[in-house]
Structure formats: C-alpha cells, structure tokens
Amino acid sequence: MGVPTVTICTDRFELFAREKATAFKAPALPIVSVPHPITGRRSDEVSEMADGVFDKLLRAARDPLPPGAEAVKPGADEASEIPGWIVLDDDLEAVCDHFHRQGWTDGLPIIPPTRERIDRMFSGHPGPPEEVIGVIPNLKGEATVERIAVAMVMAGCLPEQLPVVLAAVRAMLQPPYNLPACQSTTNAIAPLLILNGPVIERLGFNFRENVFGQGNRVNAAVGRAVRFILLNIGGAVPGKLDRATHGHPGKYTYCIAENEVESPFEPFHLERGFARSDSVVTVVGADPPMNINDASSTSAEGVLHSIASSMIAPGSNNALRGGEPLVVFAPEHADLIARDGWTKKDVRAYLYEHSRIPMSQFSPENRERIRLLRKSWFERNSETEQVAMADGPESIMLLVTGGAGKHSMLITNFGNTRHASERILFPVDCAC
Question: Which region among 51-60, 186-195, 200-209, 257-266 has the lowest average model confidence (pLDDT)?
C-alpha cells in the first residue's frame, strides 16, 4: 500500500484545504494544520510549531485513508452535474434573498436567471449551450455556455455581450494569467478587463469620464458577470476559496475600455499582435488604481517623473515579484508626452529606470525574500542594490483612457500573474 497524500496548511486555511480536497473527490483526505501565520515568525517560533505538529504529520502519513478517500489526480474528475431547477415565488425580493442565503451573489440584487432569460442570452451563439469554454478553478467547474449565460443574466447583461464574456473567460484560462492563484490569493486583486477595437463602439463601453466608476451598464454588467462566473462556477466564495485579506471594490466589477479616439499612441491591443480591426479583451490580475495628480508639469519628463515616483511602492507585489504594472494615462497627459516626441518605448525605458526601489527601503527579512523570488533579476543586475518594479521595460503596460483632467493612474498587480488577451468573435448571424 502506498503512502497516502497529506495536506499541510495553517489553521486559517483548513476550510480552504477541505474545499479543495472535496473538489478533487477526496473529501476525507488527511489535513494537518499548523497555527496561522507562518510568515513573519522567528526561527525559534517556527521550530516550536514544527515540533508541535510533527506527531500529527507522522500519524496522518502512516494511517491508511478512510474508505472512498483515495486522492484523484488533478483534471481526472468530471465537473459536478448542474443542480436541478429551483422553484421560488414570483417575487424579486424573495428570489434575491434566496440567492444571497446560498452565497450565489455579490451581495447586490440580481436578475433572476429564469429559463426564458437564459435561453435568450445564448440565442445568438452558434454552438450548443452545453459547449464547454473551460474548467474554472478552484472547484474545477465546467464553464459551459449555458452556465456563463446564467451568470450574465444575474449580472444584468444583454445577449449581444455574450462574445465578450466568453472571450474574457478564455483569456483568464490562459496559463500565464494563473487563474488558480488569482482565485485564492490573500492579495487584493481582481480581474481587470480592458476592451479594445470596434467592440467598444459596437456595444457602448465607456472609455471617457469616470471610466473606472459607475454609470455605464455595459462596463458594469460585463465585469460583474465575470465575478459571478468565478464565484459560482469556480467556487471563489469569500472566506472559503477566495482568501483575499481585504479584497477591493473591483471584485464587484472591473471593466474598462481604452480611449482610442483621443490617444496619440497606437492602441493597447496592437502591441499584443492584434489588428486594429480586431475586437479584443485583455485580463489583468489587478490591484485597485492609485490616482496620480499632476496638473503643473509642462513637459513629458515632468509628468513621467511624477508617475515614476508614484511607482516606488515597496509594499506592492510588483516590488516583491516583478511583473507587469499598468500605467493608465489620461488623454491630456498622453498628449503632452507625445507632443514632446516621446514614444511608448521611451516612456517604458524612463519609468523602468526611474522607479527603482533601493533595497534599504525593505526590511532585512524582505530583502532576503526578494532575492529569492527575483533571483534571475539579480543575476542580471548583480551590480545594483535597487530593484525594479517590472521584469523589464517591455513589461510595463501603458494604456490611455478617461476624460478631461490631468490625472493618470497606477495599477500594480499580483506579480504572480501575467496579462492575457483574446480576440472577441461575434457570430456572423448574431443580431447584435
């Protein structure tokens, strides 16, 4: 008989481990917990914790698993069947209350996903409703077109938005995005959707004033549908598989479009190999935006100095891990930069060099951690006692959006994720 698998976690993550074990069809898998947290403890404290858990670990590894608790390899199981239809009173408040109690919502009222509304949502899709777009971690639920349509109905979407949401799901499932980690991290991240191309005008995405805020149904509903997909198909329930320490408001909805009309630079999606005529959605595992107010600078270098200084953020994941920080220029700042003859390549080079963080800004323990997490970066830059916020100049993402005013924004991200883009495919026979 082989040695059984044992899961080790801190006591605050024991519920997370149990949910994962159930998803892998091993609900009785032995779980050994240690007191939370582990990080930030002195070596003598860690040794004491290890001594206290060692006997439990040996016992769990020695004893056979209970019947029916054999571990299943990842990807070997099938997604659970869709639950049967529920019958509720034809009362909006009663429906919302039931969905809230089940943990199926984001806390706000929803549109009841009736059979009629669901069928209407995917009526223009050329494939069958049971078509599987992908498997959503961490509960490994199958994201069928029908299930995605349920999420869209709840979020208040319209049928013509289905191709956008399907493309966003495909983008999040690309390996570089690292959806399993994004779903369960303690970091305050959410999938930021960035729209480019003809889809912006076709569906009416906001790209001007208040682009990150309220007021536009398309931005709000599409971003919210993605959250429902992660919640109800992927199991990202706060406090269970969604372990965010704080989270941020973008976890309700986080969806914007580039202001291609007023941007002096080539659009975001062209840099990613798409044609100008392509409609594209890009997903970024993003922190909340930080406003950068510079109404005084009269040169490109002045504006970029303000932005680079704001990027010096020792507490960000980009400082600890590198990655792809996103700089969002207001059109007025972008015009000033372009007027002075700066290209996107020039901007990236400046920001990369002038947002370096001295290692003295980190605690001794974090210096050691950074050198481990970013070993390859320090091998390439062994002569410096500074660390860059990005993997390289090319890793700094630049976007132009928003309305009037001299405000730009910095959006740091998870670090352990990379952006992913998908072309949005509209059916030829779609009535949208």
Answer: 51-60
- Select the highest-mean-pLDDT range: 41-55, 63-77, 365-379: 365-379
What tokens were used for 121? 């949502």
Token pair for 146: 């029908």
Mind listing the pLDDT tens digit for each residue in 396-418? 999 999 999 999 999 999 989 99
Residue 71 lies in a domain: no
The DSSP code sequence of 215-227 is --HHHHHHHHHHH
Residues 255 and 120 in one domain: yes
Residues 275 and 158 in one domain: yes
Work out how many domains the chain is built from and give that number: 3
> Looking at the predicted structure, is the pLDDT value of residue 50 above 90?
no
Element (H, E) at 38: none
CA angle 143, 147, 153 (to 5 degrees): 135
Q: Are strands 326-329 and 290-293 parallel, antiparallel or unpaired?
A: unpaired
Same domain, 257 and 204: yes
What's the confidence (pLDDT) of residue 286? Answer: 97
Q: What is the maximum alpha-carbon separation in the chain?
A: 74
Residues 6+ positions from 366 with CB-CB distance below 8 Å: 314, 320
Q: In whole angstroms, give the CA distance from residue 336 to residue 341.
A: 9
The whole-angstrom separation of Cα 420 and Cα 174 is 7
328 and 218 within one domain: no
Identify the domain containing residue 186 by its residue range: 91-285
Domain identity same for 263 and 325: no
pLDDT of residue 63: 60
Instruction: Give the tokens for residue 292.
Output: 């950068």
57 falls within a domain: yes
Report residue 30's pLDDT band, with 50, 70 and 90 as the boundaries: confident
- Token output for 206: 């906001």
Same domain, 109 and 209: yes
